[in-house]
Amino acid sequence: MQLFTDLRMFDEAQICDEFVCRAINVMRKLERSDVDSLRRLASYFIRKSEYNLAARIYGNINDIKAMAQMHVAAGHWTDAFAIADRYPKYIEDVYLPYARYLAERDQFLEAQKGKISYLYYHWLLSMQYLERSKDNPSLIPKYYASAKLAEVYYAYHAIFLYCNQPFTRHSSETLLNMARYLAAQEPVPNISQVLINYTMARIGRELGAYKLARDTLDRLGSLRVPPRLQRDVELMTVNIRAKPFSDAEDLLPVCHSEIFPFLEILPLIEFFIDDDIPTEEAVSLVESEPPLSDSNFNPFQNVAKKSGEIRLNRDDLTRLEKGQVIILHWPEPLKTKFLFNQMPSISVSKCPSCNKVFHSDDFEMAVLQEGHCPFCRSVQERPDNPYTIDEP
């Protein structure tokens, strides 16, 4: 009986192979202009798991998008990534399904270690939207949305590692700012509100933000806390009862810069130029040497008393110390941004690719450890490192 079954399966395989061979012969005879017939053949090969033959057809008719979608549907991520690398306009067709694939399998940690993370995916996607927005301005909102998600996943990556690994390169203050930033956002897939609130409660209690810790512990009471964190939450809930009902003054929420809102608080203030000054001229004026008498010129000393945008004229720009000005160059239709470092003793670094700003020491350490910008992964050769903005 077993022999009969094996022979029947062999005959069925032979018949199947015969049909595939016939399809291959038909493929060879078809003209490249007969696109509809070739597409039907490609669909047949896909059903028979003959992906190489289907890919050959899609290549012949120059249907790269269909080829990418085939590899995505089959889970051939290496082949799909290769297509996205060669044809950047198909990044969205590859990485969005890949992000969903990881999300469905709860593989956020693997995503951080693998070829691409959620952060990197949304960063690449935002850059694609920005590039295409030159011809299609309606894509600008999509650029901002993807760039925002990249920032959210960057912050959450740090929170995730803090809750799952014994060491982190971020300071407690930075992690607290990141957790606060995430808590203020709309819910995002694959971001745990438990870990965000746990981080705020734990670090807030350690640093003296007792009111914040108490509020987040109350929120944790309504969430499903993993068993590994349950004991910590219970102990913090008991211990916080003996603490004051206020936060340390230096831990109160502040108005963050929109440049990179959840890192350590940097002494940066954004300013604008008068409408009659072209961007190129403004950059030239900033980079010129200021008069010696204006070496300590700071037009923002009383900024707290002002409201609205801070605008500088030509005279103000020439008086600025260029070592205290950070210029964020963006391609059109975005505008160039200008930042002023009010405390030159604090060294600030900027990534020239993503225009994110960091404390210089933290950024240099991240580049040394990872070999690239911690946000956009752009590699910068050393020692000619343009990241760091030297102190004046």
TrEMBL record:
<dbReference type="GO" id="GO:0035721">
    <property type="term" value="P:intraciliary retrograde transport"/>
</dbReference>
<dbReference type="GO" id="GO:0097730">
    <property type="term" value="C:non-motile cilium"/>
</dbReference>
<dbReference type="Pfam" id="PF25143">
    <property type="entry name" value="Zn_ribbon_IFT122_C"/>
</dbReference>
<dbReference type="GO" id="GO:0030991">
    <property type="term" value="C:intraciliary transport particle A"/>
</dbReference>
<keyword id="KW-0853">WD repeat</keyword>
<keyword id="KW-0677">Repeat</keyword>
<dbReference type="InterPro" id="IPR057411">
    <property type="entry name" value="TPR_IFT122"/>
</dbReference>
<dbReference type="InterPro" id="IPR039857">
    <property type="entry name" value="Ift122/121"/>
</dbReference>
<feature type="domain" description="Intraflagellar transport protein 122 homolog TPR">
    <location>
        <begin position="18"/>
        <end position="113"/>
    </location>
</feature>
<dbReference type="GO" id="GO:1905515">
    <property type="term" value="P:non-motile cilium assembly"/>
</dbReference>
<dbReference type="GO" id="GO:0061512">
    <property type="term" value="P:protein localization to cilium"/>
</dbReference>
<protein>
    <recommendedName>
        <fullName>Intraflagellar transport protein 122 homolog TPR domain-containing protein</fullName>
    </recommendedName>
</protein>
<dbReference type="Pfam" id="PF25295">
    <property type="entry name" value="TPR_IFT122"/>
</dbReference>
